[in-house]
Amino acid sequence: MLLAGAALFAAGEPAAAVDGGAYANVVPAPVTARADRGTFAIDRHTAIAADPGADGVAGYLAGILRRSTGYPLPVVRPGARGSGTIALRLTGGSDAEGYRLDVTPRGVTLAADRPAGLFAGVQTLRQLLPAAVERDRRGPGPWTVPAGHVADHPRFAYRGAMLDVARHFFSVAQVERYIDQLALYKVNTFHLHLADDQGWRIMIRSWPRLATYGGGTAVDGDPGGYYTQQQYQQIVAYAAARYITVIPEIDMPGHVNAALASYAELNCDGVAPPRYTGTDVGFSSLCVGKDITYRFLDDVIGELAAITPGRYLHIGGDEAQATSQADYVAFMNRVQGIVAAHGKSALAWHQVVAATVAPSTVAQYWDTTNDNPSVAAAAARGTGLVLSPANLAYLDMKYNSQTPLGQDWAALVEVADAYGWDPGAYLLGAPAGAIRGVEAPLWTETIRTSDDIEYMAFPRLPAIAELGWSPAAAHDWAAFRLRLGAQAPRWKALGIDFYPSPQVPWV
Ligand code: TNX
Fold first, then answer.
1. In this structure, which of 30, 139, 243, 351 has its CB flanked by the most CB atoms within 10 Å?
2. Could you tell me which residue ranges the Beta-hexosaminidase bacterial type N-terminal domain spans (predicted)?
């Protein structure tokens, strides 16, 4: 088909996807992609011509290209050069993340209404270049981009990944490394699970022992740690520079042993329990009847809201087995009000639907069945849903019984399982319009290093990311496994330690 000069790979044409070279291998699959005749070559004369407002994206692209090509790639204003440029044009409409990419032998034009769209388009452009462009050392090239055209926009506004830094702590550098990997696949939301039974990972200045004592341990007695507010803001800024919004989670009323251990007065009996380094869930609860609980939460939520630019704070709400149902409902209702009082909206695990769900609250569904009438009913009443079914989207599930890391309580999750569902039609009785998107959580009871994170996230994170971005009509396992296999040289160039699933024909 390439020999015919032009080939259109629209969503839902799996046969074509194999023949289109780089354009057919983009993950997540674009809405439309067409390969044309010819190539554009980046050379030592190439400039990046950025509209005002596109300088941030231009600098990011230049950073990637300069490292591997060794070329200067100056960022200039459009008009300064005619051909030989990579032009980043802002078209000023209201499409939040869509973009158009045109590559001809004369140059590259990437156009989008918003910088976030340009950023998404840059991720596509990276995948059209040789994998060696991802190396952090200069290579010989040639740095060619096949000619063609892409018009693209996401299916869902929320495309998330979660990292649990409570069970094991990860440094700012490790978190930033993961954020860079999320950006590759157009993930736009980073959910940071900051507090759980085993550790409290963010400094709250009005309650400092949460971090200094409650953050001092991790699962198995491994080293703890916490982020200062400045470090947290560094993570938020690093994500924002990649058009990724951070959603911090303080899990409550359960999953709070680290807080209870840090302040005796938060306990109903006034006695602080020891810190916890095991992996059980569902044994701790805030004291729902005590006033100090709500002063504490007002302080915590207030400090977190002040350093979180995104709209959402995640208030947990899962597995509150140590809280009575009446207490749970009263508590979740009150906490949603505290979040609103600090100008934010709540995200909560789906058990929140047992309470009175505020119109702005979004529920995150993690159960392992597609049949949950109370969550579907909430969605029908207007509650937005983010889907993270544990047996499909949890990155801490083992791939198979031999996987050295992870758990298996929800399922063994091979790549085809992670990819094999449709978020828009998954939850029985939930209107498609209630689905805000998908999220791939990575719980870290068994995860200790960046290699561990990557081994569990790759290749399932790109699978979930594609479910979130690509049109339903593009959903095709036979084509996806080929496109996924073609990513391997990029992961190797980036030093990503991935699971080489036997389901995928790795290049
Ligand atoms: C369930 S499902 C949890 C986490 C655990 C995870 C381990 C849900 C919202 N919570 O507390 O870390 O399983 O797979």
1. 30
2. 25-153
- Structure confidence at residue 21 (pLDDT): 84
Pocket probe for ligand 1: among 443, 444, 447, the residue whose CB has the most ligand atoms within 8 Å is: 443
Q: Are 257 and 197 in contact (CB under 8 A)?
A: yes
CA distance 259 to 265: 10
61 contacts 91 by C-beta, under 8 angstroms: no
Q: What token pair was written down for 48?
A: 């990046």
Q: 189-196 and 199-200 as β-strands: parallel, antiparallel, unpaired? A: antiparallel
| Residue length of the chain | 507
Mutate which of 318, 353, 408, 445 for ligand 1? The one with the most ligand atoms within 8 Å of its CB, which is 318
Q: How far is the CA of 62 from the centre of ligand 1 (A)?
A: 39
- How far apart CA 75 and CA 61 sit, in angstroms, is 10
What one-character-per-residue DSSP string does 54-100 give? -HHHHHHHHHHHHHHH-----EE-TTS-SSSEEEEEE--SS-SS-EE
Mean pLDDT, rounded, of the chain: 95
Would you put residue 107 in left (φ > 0), alpha (ψ -120 to 50) or beta? left
What is the SS3 assignment for 377?
A: helix
- Distance, in Å, from the CA atom of 388 to the CA atom of 191, rounded to the nearest integer, reads 12
Q: What are the pLDDT digits (tens) for 16-44?
A: 333 458 999 999 999 999 999 999 999 99
Give how far Cα 49 sits from Cα of 90, 173, 236, Å. 11, 31, 28
Homologous superfamily, domain 158-471: Glycosidases (3.20.20.80)
pTM for the structure as a whole: 0.96
Query: Considering the chain, what percentage of its residues have pLDDT values greater than 90?
Result: 94
In the annotation, is 319 catalytic? yes
Task: Residues 7-152: name the CATH superfamily.
Answer: Chitobiase/beta-hexosaminidase domain 2-like (3.30.379.10)
Q: Say how many Å lie between the CA of residue 308 and the centre of ligand 1.
A: 24
Query: What is the C-alpha separation between 181 and 494, in angstroms, rounded?
Result: 9
* Single-letter code of the amino acid located at 386: V
**What is the pLDDT, as a whole number, of residue 6?**
40
* Cα-based torsion angle of the residue sequence 8, 13, 14, 17 in order, rounded to the nearest 10 degrees: 10
Mean pLDDT of 80-95: 88
pLDDT of residue 79: 82
Closest ligand 1 atom to residue 366 Cα is 2
